[in-house]
Amino acid sequence: MKKGYFGEFGGCFVPELLMPPLLELEEACADILPGEEFRAELDGLLRGYAGRETPLTLCPTLSRELGFNLYLKREDLLHTGAHKMNNTLGQALLAKRMGKSVLAAETGAGQHGVATAAAAARLGLSCVVFMGEEDTRRQAANVMRMRLLGAEVRPVAGGTRTLKDAINEALRFWIAEQRTTHYCFGTAAGPHPFPTLVRDLQSVIGEETKAQCRSAFGALPDVVAACVGGGSNAAGMFHPFVADRAAGAVRLAGIEAGGTGEPGCHTSAPLNLGSPGVLHGQYSMLLQDADGQILPSHSVSAGLDYPGVGPEHAWFRKSGRVEYHVVVDAGALRAFARLCRSEGIIPALESSHALAWVLENAAALPAGGNVVVNLSGRGDKDMDIIREHMPDLCLPARTAEKEDGLCHRQ
Amino acid sequence: MSPTINQDGKGERTLSSTMEQAGGPRPARTLPPGSGQGDASVLTRRIEEANAAGRIAFIPFITAGFPSPAKFSAALRELDEGGADIIEVGVPFSDPVADGPVVEEASRRALAAGTGLRGILEELAADAACRRAPVVLMGYYNPFLQYGLTRFAQDAAAAGVSGCIVPDLPVDEDGPLRAALAARAVALIPLVGVNTSPARMRAYARGAAGYVYLVSVLGVTGERAAFADELAGAFTRAAGVFSLPLAVGFGFSGPEQLKNLPFRPQAVVVGSALLRFLDAGGSAADFIRKFFAD
């Protein structure tokens, strides 16, 4: 297979000016990442600083109701509140070994920005986070967290003022500052070697899950579900199962965000509703118009709100190894509320999509079997959105008008 | 549209004072009618002709459909009449990662006005026979890919397009487009930077045609007061590797910058400064006059 490709997907579609730092990074991935000293230092940070390993939690109430054992892989308990830290600590450590002094990052909802800012602070690196102007307004608390952690947050006013434009701006910054800066990309997408690098750093999720399943019920799970935006938590969860021949019978399900689900509204489901094309350095599935212009995406969960997806997922879908489904905003919100009440866990709206698929398809899942949902993050960051969409849950209801509604018509 | 302007040489008469500096009468473009083949070598030839006349070839860049579809059409004509040696036409894209704020904004507005690759090719085709300056399309890969590479090469050649620059298509990924364009004798113009190693330059040189675009700064498009120190070194490296003329671009706004360069490029590309001038209500003809007045 051609370098940096997953089947026909992947590649490195970037300006020539970015090739030298990407080649430098590829070399560092090969030379530094596998080193024993590096592994040990990263492992120490993940355990002692970030809180690994994260538990595999059985949900007793939901399991009774659903007729199978529902387990949650608790990435929500990781430092800064999501799986993002697995990636940022790894890349920050790598950047330091490469002699870089600055971490640049893009962020949508702010979770990757916060995780990068924290890793930079911990390892003594400077940090610049690019965030769409629209997102800085919607996620003001995360902007403050990043600033508290010492990062410079640069609002991006171009394009749709959201995640994809933050990525554009971060890539531009990296072109100019490549000598001192490592671009700490947030998901298993983008130009080679990022899809592989981020997946490998996130694979700790799937590795732990396999071991924890063996000790909890002495076998691999029947079904594993994870939400897919750019795809890093799902890649980290799925890859150890895909790579393991003994796990060939494990059903893997990636769940994309369908937005409102109303006709004519934007979604964040390029695997199910998009077509192949090139964006942000990769050939993968995209939401685009007939002219190849990228369409805006939409989801109630900001972390899934992206018009592209990592190339390995495009390949997993094409090869049939992983199935991909769509859950709309309302389904995710219902699953969110049900987990809160049933199990005392407030999930991120992103992870709620994966949970929703399991809840909605419970009848078709193996009775008495074992189902794992990757709970990629916690929902504390989503309180404003929840208040807006489920006012009856949050008394007194906020009286301010809905900003924008949910439906972004094309 | 006034299809006779260039054929009767009116453009040069109108701007005769400018053209004494910018060049002078040049041979009319010979488009092979209906052959469906492009002519990559015309790009090299036009730059060499300018150099033979003692000047640096002038390559303006304008985003198609900007500031408005009508003004773009006028600008394209005026640049041709005004003595542009080659014209780079930007194909707007929603996510232009190699571009600075001026070109990004131009792309956004052009898209909002309904500009698309099909319409650009149709417009270029309509005027191909009377245009003197060869046209190079500069755009991101995805719109070309979605158009269909084979069909794009065919339609581009038929529209009189002599070359393409695709800023997000490094040599490692350019095989399919290069093959499609080569079948129609349309050049895929390499874009290299001050940080491009001689080994990578040699990889670009293997399939190169037309000219080579040397990005003057480690950054995105946009005007700059000063250039990276390493530009002279990169120019020397590139001159040693490529047998094609070198066009320097990204950051030029006026000829005084050319005087200060420690080397003499064969061609210079001017984009953002021209787009800003057009957006402020200026005409392409005036821009050329001002550019060459100094």
Structure report:
The complex is a heterodimer of chains A (410) and B (294). Chain A is built from 16 helices and 14 strands. With 410 residues, chain A is of the alpha/beta class. Chain A folds into two domains: 156 residues, Rossmann fold, CATH 3.40.50; 221 residues, Rossmann fold (3-Layer(aba) Sandwich), CATH 3.40.50. In chain A, the strands form three sheets. In chain A, strands 3-4-14-9-10-13 form a six-stranded mixed beta sheet, sandwiched between helices. In chain A, strand 1 and strand 2 form a beta hairpin. The longest helix of chain A has 15 residues. Chain B has 14 helices and nine strands. Helices cover 44% and strands 13% of the residues of chain B. By secondary structure, chain B is an alpha/beta fold. In chain B, helix 9 links the parallel strand 4 and strand 5. In chain B, helix 4 runs parallel beside helix 14. Chain B has one domain: TIM Barrel (Alpha-Beta Barrel), CATH 3.20.20. Chains A and B meet through strand 2, helix 8 and strand 11 of A and helix 5, helix 7 and strand 6 of B.
Enter the CATH topology name of the largest domain in chain A.
Rossmann fold
Order of helices and strands of chain A: EEHHEHEHEHEHHEHEHHEHEHEEHEHHEH
Give the DSSP E fraction of chain A (strand runs of 2 or more residues).
15-25%
User: Count of helices of chain A?
Assistant: 16
Structure summary:
The complex is a heterodimer of chains A (about 400) and B (about 290). With about 400 residues, chain A is an alpha/beta fold.
Draw up the topology in text:
The complex is a heterodimer of chains A (410) and B (294).
Chain A lengths: L4 E2 L2 E5 L5 H13 L4 H15 L5 E3 L1 H7 L2 E6 L9 H14 L4 E6 L3 H13 L2 E7 H6 L1 H9 L3 E5 L6 H15 L3 E3 L10 H9 L1 H14 L5 E5 L4 H11 L8 E7 L12 H4 L1 E5 L1 E6 L24 H9 L2 E6 L1 H15 L5 H12 L9 E6 L7 H7 L21
Helix pairs in contact in A: 2-4, 4-5, 4-9, 5-7, 9-11, 10-11, 14-15
Chain B lengths: L9 H5 L1 H7 L18 H12 L4 E7 L5 H14 L4 E5 L9 H12 L4 H11 L7 E5 L1 H7 L1 H10 L2 E5 L9 H8 L4 E2 L2 E2 L5 H8 L6 E4 L15 H11 L4 E4 L5 H6 L6 E4 L1 H8 L4 H10 L1
Parallel strand pairs in B: 1-2, 1-9, 2-3, 3-4, 4-5, 6-7, 7-8, 8-9
Helix pairs in contact in B: 2-14, 4-14, 8-9
